[in-house]
Amino acid sequence: MSIVFKKRKLDDTPYEACAVFDVNNDGIPDIVSGAYWYEGPDYVKRHKICDVAGVEAGKVGYYHDDFSDYPLDVDGDGYMDIITGSYFADTLRWRRNPGPAGGEWATLDIEASANIETIRYFDIDGCGTPEIFPNTPGGPQVFYKLICDQHGKGTGKFQKVVIHEEKSGHGLGFADINGDGRTDIVLTGGWLEQPEDPMKGPWTFHPEFSLGSASIPILGYDVNEDGLCDLIVGQAHDYGLHWYEQAIAQDGTRSWIKHDIDLTVSQYHDLQLVDLDNDGELELVAGKRYRAHNTDPGTEDPVGIYYFKIKNGTFEKYTIDYGAAGEASGNGIYMWIEDLTGNGYLDIVAPGKEGLFLFENLGKKE
């Protein structure tokens, strides 16, 4: 039995990131993408957030400078703000939710940075609030911690922590590689071992693999159920989706064995592991990012979104959507998966240069 999805195109806007959260505190989740938010529960009414700059980047194409739309109450006023980042302006930013006053959102700089490919979020210190991890291929790996007051509310300020001084490379993920109960940071050229205190370090770098133009995120998962954490990696700017099997020799030496999942799709930039069919097992959701670069292999191929039943490493592929960009959808640089309809199944919000799409999960059908 496959999972059935009902597709709806919400907008033709070309933004490549999205999020789901309650923007106006009415108890109903809304969809945010780029310059707009879409009011739930039907997501028809569109509200302006702010202008988002468009950038012509030579041969690699036209972009809008918004590479994340993550919800975080930065200033502690009870309304969710947005964390975003700029590749072209080299800046980590947040947008202030105006709350009941309404109107456009002010955009404030957190800090200048190296070019931000996109951003991921993880509560690395167990404080209850996720830290901000930009993927900056040409810069060091850092994260930013929201500074909260004595009541646990955001103050609008952040603490920067540098965990790797060398260039990060294209790719970022979170996984407990060595099974010590601490989440490590995975980069394209190796992994950073989390110390006892992630805020103080030092983080030890283990250059054990080379993952290419790796997806963001790189996923950690025990694919073959042998008790070791493996890696699932898309090629963000080429063809290919793979998993890397972790192997431990008798002398304790670690090695990684590369296995193909799918070689027919290019620009697997964003991946997620979720239980789409409520069977208690995680599925891999992935898709083609439309025009990640105009110069990537497979740029002109049709777009699509897929899910894979992992099945101990066999990775059985199912198609959610496929076709010409605009009629069909890829999954941009940051899709969002959440139950929006209340039927108990996870839905998929898919942004991209081809438009913003919602795939309502109707469950398994014969």
TrEMBL record:
Keywords: Signal. InterPro entries: FG-GAP (IPR013517), Integrin_alpha_N (IPR028994). The keyword Isomerase does not apply. This is FG-GAP repeat domain-containing protein. The lineage of its organism: Bacteria, Bacillati, Bacillota, Bacilli, Bacillales.
